[in-house]
Each structure stands twice: as C-alpha cells, then as structure tokens.
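The authors assume throughout that readers already know how a fold can be written as discrete tokens. What matters is that the chain and its backbone geometry are given together, residue for residue. A single example would do more here than another paragraph of explanation. For illustration, here is how one protein appears when written out as sequence plus structure tokens.
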Amino acid sequence: MSELDFSLPVVWALVIGVAVALYVVLDGFDLGIGILFPFFPREHDRDQMMNTVAPFWDGNETWLVLGGGGLWVAFPKAFAIIMPALYLPVIVLLLALIFRGVAFEFRWVAKPHHRWWDLAFSGGSTLAAFAQGLVLGGLLQGIEVRNGEFAGGPLDWLTPFSLFTGCALVVGYALIGATWLAMKTDGDVEARSRRLGVGLLAGLLGAIAIVSVWTPLAVPRIAERWFAMPAFLWLAPVPVATAIAAAACWHGLRKRRHLMPFVASVALFLLAYVGLVISNVPYLVPPVLDVWQAAADPKSQMFMLVGVLVLLPIILAYTAFNYWVFRGKVKAGEGYH
C-alpha cells in the first residue's frame, strides 16, 4: 500500500467525522427545540424559541450533507452496505427533516391557524432525532455482510439496542436544546429550560452509562479495546472528562450561568461521540470493513478532496460569522423573521 493509498482514506474519515460532529452539535440544539415544544404551550414562548434558531437552522444541515455525501464519494463500498441495511430509518430521517423544515417556514405565514404546523415541527424534530438514533444503533450493533455486500434483512436494525439509542438521542438533543434556550432567551422560557435541563441531564447520563455497559457486554472486541491494558490507562480520561462536563452542566443550570451549560452539554455529546469512535476505529462498517477496504480510487478521493479543502474554510467562516452577528439573547417579542 502506497503512502497516498494509506493517508487519503484517513483524511476523508477525519473530514466525515468532523462533519458528523458539527452536525450533531449545530443541528442538535434546533432539533432539541422542536422536541421541547410540547413543554412550552404558549404561542409567544414558542415564537421566542424558534426565533433563537431562525438565523442558523438551515445552514446547520450543511454538515449532514457533507457527511453523507462524503461517505458516498470517498467510501462507496461502505455506502453501498450501510444504505440498504438502514434504508428504512434513513428514509424516515429524511422525511422528518423535510416536515420540520417546511413547518418552520409555514408556521409563521399560517398564523393564527398554525397549530398543525406546530405539531409538524415538534413531531418532525422528535422523529428525526429518534431515526438518527436508530441509524446509530443499527450501525454499532453490526451489519451482516457477505462477499462485500449487505446480506441481512430489511428490519435487522430494529432491535432493543437501536430503539434505546433512538430514545437516548432524543433526550440528548433535548438537553442541548434546553441549554441553548437557557443561553439565548430570558424570562419564563429561560427559567423553564433550566428546570427541564436538570432532568434531561440526568436522563442523558443514565443513557450514556447504559450504553457504556451494554456495548462491551454485547461486543467482545469493544470490551477488549476499552478494558485491556495498557489501553485502559490511555482511555480512562474519557469517562473522567464526561463526569467533569456533567458536573459543569449541572452547576451552570442551577447557578443561572448562561454559556456554561450549553458548552458543557456540547462537551458531553462530543465525549460520547469520541467514545463511540474509539470503540469502532478504523471500521466504517463494524467489524468487517475498515476505511482502507471501503475507500474509493485515490484519484477520485483526491479530486473531491481539493473541492472540500477550498469550500470547507468558506463554510466554517460563514458559520462563525453568522453566529457572531446573531449573538446575545433573544427577548420575548424580538426575532429575525
């Protein structure tokens, strides 16, 4: 294997990994706001909530496109296995995102007859988060592969583990949404978001603990990776950092800090993400297909990588500029719509 054959798949795996992480964080809080809609029945509270994400939500989904498109371009063999294995939850995810996006725009123009759009926004956000958890759970538990092709059934992903990861992701996104609202709103919305955040934090920590026990018990290779020496010593900082982030989130919510709870909840998500990556690296389709086996031809990878390296800094700069311009709290009655 040449140096280029070795390094290009690693670079592309990093690009896709960063794109997925950015999507989870940036689209996570606006999905979380939709999930929390039922807890805020008053119209002006919901208006305030939606106005906190109005300048951002559309651009946040750029990272989902980059992650999915990058998988298709750079690792077509993995894409050809993952898609038929997880076709149903992926379709549900895309339809839910469409419902949520349409509802976000139509809710404003349909007033005062916007009740169904509220339901579509909340239901689409919740279903999208749950479907993402199903995809994650189905991938983590393993996909049946024979002769380089998917050899399982259309409902192999439907297991207690994937259903649990779906519910856990809904709770996690709701926590990010609650801490975002605690940072970006004031008054009743902020106060209720902080109260909800404490309970959601407890729920997410419980889910992380269960998954951390469930996966090593169910998958011996993950148990060996985490608990064999000396890897155990090297990886011990991950759960320690998780506990610190959880404590910071709880402290920030209770002491009415504005930025701390959101940053800590994002850190919790990223640490959980790092833990999943550590459990499965270098596999794209655990445990049968790694990044080098799944990689496209180096010429194809290089051609697309040039485009990504040109556009990625522009997207990052625009995203940072957008968040800077619309920084600060959104008070009741204010908005960008």
Observations:
- The chain has one domain: 3-325.
